[in-house]
């Protein structure tokens, strides 16, 4: 190594290994051995690495036995420790980041990951916000609140907040404000939250009240408010407990159309809409539409009448990006966007057979309760040790268990797996095992630092496997916590089209993967998209709304979403050889578009 190894480096290494082992639930003796070694090395006044390089016998040091000594020697010689690397593949870095939050020791992290499925600081924050964290054994409300404060302190106010956290915060503030403000008639999110952008700056709220003057003081007085920035007749701005700014504007019902349109944005959409209006002798602001020649201002109770006054249909907020939506509105070619209610099934679900937190039977029952026509249970493959991945034998037993449940439900239960794409592109199960499954998700979970060419080849090799149905969360990103892997998205989507492989829009709010621009390109190429929740809990099924929002921002209609088709059409596609699926999907899209135009 070019940089000398310090004692602190070795202490960090062994403490990290102890923490990862504790999170995994490994031997307490092994955990304590690493902890003792770290404690001993921390107190040394001389450099341990230098002593190891000089050939000194490290076993003479109390607390350092043969195994620890060998790992120090390996670290000094190579700059790495193979045992650490293996653990790091099993325990994601995002889980280790939980240990950096005050109040989150290894036992607490283990409980949070096992009981709540938390794998990142963003998910921890959401669990603290919605009360789940406080329900952990030996946690309690006060400890959960302290953890939340520590998380908030880490985030600079200028940072953007992931959509899932902003959405939960906005919903909580709205509920509190309705309780505190009896005259409140409606409260509508605007801005980037209403446009369902993947990250949010401030949260804009538009209120209609029988007594508008009471809404600002009511917001300022909420217990979650930690700072009041502005309090006036028309606008109140506060910072609420997660460190997010809330901007509230109150108005009268008759003027809500212009106000909601103006504050929903985006900036580019509003600039282009204003220019469009100016060319027609009109000017726009948050109060209404003014006829320039006469100076008369017209007010609008809703957005539909506001856009109609401009000779335009209502434009869905997700499309308001200044990127062609006005041209489409003028031409009458705005798409009919997919809705959450269009989804007929969920095809990425985990049970407690791997890292899910609910028994298989409860997950199936919860999916059936959604009114779905089909589902796929997709627990992890064996390679993901931290997720308790299934061996081929366990997978075979699960398949039998799922088949045993089929007679209880009208919906089709598909047997599947989320199978790791290994570093070389090989699948984590052999083909004879994959052939027993109805639905195979291929996902990257490790070796994420590969260069673009290597990562692209890796995922393409998975697509070329005849049993791989869909690529799951292709970029492997975690919003605000983990960067996406580096790949050639055009090459992947072209290969997906050629091989008959679908691409997933993972609706987990910390993922939103594919992102909207990638999903739009998939739509253009005729690649089937699948909106899945990747649920590890029954309450995760509701996250489908986030996936639908990504698809809507990608201009997708229900015809572009594979699991928005009825069971007969979907299963016909699925049971076709992969080589026939591109043409079959094209025909499905054409029939659905034709039916919608009749």
Helix content: 40-55%
Give the count of helical stretches: 25
Outline the low-pLDDT stretches: none
Write out the strand line-up for the largest beta sheet, numbering strands in chain order. Answer: 11-12-13-14-15-16-17
Description:
The radius of gyration is 27 Å and the shape is globular. It has a 7-stranded parallel sheet with strand order 11-12-13-14-15-16-17. A 5-stranded mixed sheet has the order 2-4-7-6-5, sandwiched between helices. The protein has 5 domains: 91 residues, DNA polymerase, domain 1; 58 residues, 5' to 3' exonuclease, C-terminal subdomain (DNA polymerase, domain 1); 91 residues, Beta Polymerase, domain 2, CATH 3.30.460; 76 residues, DNA polymerase, thumb domain (Beta Polymerase, domain 3), CATH 3.30.210.10; 258 residues, TIM Barrel. α1 packs across α5, α13 crosses α15 and α21 runs parallel beside α22. Helices cover 44% and strands 13% of the residues. The longest helix has 18 residues. By secondary structure, it is of the alpha/beta class.
Q: How would you summarize the topology of this molecule?
A:
Blueprint: H1 7-24, H2 28-42, H3 48-53, H4 66-78, H5 82-90, H6 93-98, H7 106-116, H8 121-130, H9 140-154, E1 161-162, H10 163-180, E2 184-189, H11 191-194, E3 199-200, E4 203-209, H12 215-220, E5 225-231, E6 235-240, E7 244-251, H13 256-264, H14 267-278, E8 282-285, E9 288-291, E10 297-298, H15 303-309, H16 325-331, E11 345-346, H17 360-369, E12 374-377, H18 392-405, E13 412-420, H19 431-434, E14 439-443, H20 452-463, E15 470-471, H21 489-499, E16 502-506, H22 516-525, E17 529-532, H23 544-553, H24 567-574, H25 581-597
Parallel strand pairs: 4-7, 11-12, 12-13, 13-14, 14-15, 15-16, 16-17
Antiparallel strand pairs: 1-3, 2-4, 5-6, 6-7, 8-9, 9-10
Helix pairs in contact: 1-2, 1-5, 1-7, 8-9, 8-10, 13-15, 20-21, 21-22, 22-23
């Amino acid at each position: 190594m070019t940089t000398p190894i310090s004692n602190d480096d070795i202490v960090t290494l062994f403490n990290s290994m102890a923490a990862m082992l504790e999170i995994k639930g490994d031997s307490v003796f092994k955990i304590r051995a690493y902890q003792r070694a770290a404690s001993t090395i921390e107190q040394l006044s001389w450099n341990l690495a230098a002593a190891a390089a000089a050939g000194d016998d490290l076993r003479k040091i109390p607390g350092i036995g043969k195994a620890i000594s060998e790992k120090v020697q390996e670290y000094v010689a190579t700059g790495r420790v193979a045992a650490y690397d293996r653990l790091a593949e099993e325990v994601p870095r995002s889980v280790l980041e939980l240990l950096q939050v005050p109040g989150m020791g290894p036992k607490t992290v283990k409980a949070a990951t096992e009981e709540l499925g938390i794998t990142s600081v963003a998910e921890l924050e959401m669990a603290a916000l919605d009360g789940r964290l406080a329900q952990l054994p030996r946690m309690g409300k006060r400890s959960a609140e302290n953890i939340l404060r520590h998380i908030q302190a880490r985030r600079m106010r200028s940072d953007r907040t992931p959509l899932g956290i902003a959405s939960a915060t906005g919903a909580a503030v709205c509920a509190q404000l309705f309780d505190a403000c009896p005259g409140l008639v409606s409260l509508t999110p605007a801005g980037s939250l209403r446009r369902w952008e993947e990250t949010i700056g401030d949260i804009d709220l538009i209120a209609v009240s029988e007594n508008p003057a009471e809404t600002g003081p009511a917001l300022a007085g909420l217990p979650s408010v930690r700072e009041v920035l502005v309090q006036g007749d028309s606008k109140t701005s506060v910072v609420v407990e997660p460190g997010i700014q809330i901007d509230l504007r109150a108005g009268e019902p008759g003027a809500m159309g212009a106000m909601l349109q103006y504050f929903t944005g985006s900036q580019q959409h509003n600039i282009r809409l204003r220019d469009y209006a100016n060319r027609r002798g009109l000017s726009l602001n948050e109060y209404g539409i003014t006829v320039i020649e006469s100076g008369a201002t017209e007010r609008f109770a809703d957005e539909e009448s506001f856009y109609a006054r401009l000779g335009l249909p209502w434009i869905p907020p997700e499309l308001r990006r200044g990127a062609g939506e006005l041209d489409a509105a003028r031409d009458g070619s705005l798409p009919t966007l997919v809705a959450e209610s269009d989804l007929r099934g969920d095809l990425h679900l985990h049970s407690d057979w791997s890292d899910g937190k609910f028994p298989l039977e409860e997950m199936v029952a919860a999916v059936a309760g959604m009114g779905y026509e089909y589902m796929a249970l997709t627990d992890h493959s064996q390679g993901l040790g931290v997720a308790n991945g299934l061996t081929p034998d366990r997978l075979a037993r699960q398949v039998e268990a799922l088949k045993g449940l089929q007679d209880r439900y009208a919906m089709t239960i598909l047997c599947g797996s989320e199978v790791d794409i290994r570093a070389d592109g090989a699948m984590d199960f052999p083909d004879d095992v994959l052939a027993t499954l109805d639905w195979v998700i291929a996902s990257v979970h490790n070796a994420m630092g590969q260069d673009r060419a290597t990562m692209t080849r890796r995922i393409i090799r998975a697509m070329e496997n005849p049993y791989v149905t869909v690529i799951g969360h292709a970029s492997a990103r975690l919003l605000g916590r983990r960067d996406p892997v580096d790949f050639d998205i055009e090459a992947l989507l072209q290969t997906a089209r050629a091989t008959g492989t679908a691409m997933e829009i993972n609706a987990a709010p910390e993922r939103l993967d594919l992102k909207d621009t990638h999903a739009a390109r998939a739509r253009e190429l005729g690649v089937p998209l699948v909106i899945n929740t990747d649920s590890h809990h029954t309450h995760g099924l509701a996250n489908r709304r986030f996936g639908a929002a990504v698809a809507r921002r990608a201009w997708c209609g229900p015809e572009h979403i594979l699991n928005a088709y009825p069971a007969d059409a979907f299963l016909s596609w699925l049971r076709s050889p992969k080589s026939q699926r591109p043409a079959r999907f094209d025909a499905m899209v054409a029939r659905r578009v034709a039916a919608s135009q009749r």
